[in-house]
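Q&A log
Question type: sequence-to-structure
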Amino acid sequence: QVQLAESGGGLVQAGGSLRLSCAASGRTFSTYAMGWFRQAPGKEREFVAAITWSGGSTYYADSVKGRFGISRDNAKNTAYLQMNSLKPEDTAVYYCAAQRGIRGTTALLRRHEYDYWGQGTQVTVSS
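Response status: OK
Response body:
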């Protein structure tokens, strides 16, 4: 069982930056792949970024590629999402999620493949 807690959201102007953190409980954090998803009002939750258990591979949605960076510190049981050059369309609730086992690249992109979710943190980008 893993419990996840996001932090770092807030209000920022377009072009600004934020870093989200996802703190995980438990001793097995390093065995989970981690993902970030977001959900804007009236829209489905969508994939943003993912990182494998070792941190050796990362994946991004096309809409954030080159602007966002996902990372993890297994010693601190924490995953991060660095968001730069933020746009109003990045406004959403951001969720971190953990995936057990090694299921392949496609599974990292699919929200239904994740086993544990945080409560979310609001990110609002003003124009």
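Response note: Residues 21 and 80 are 5 Å apart (CA to CA).
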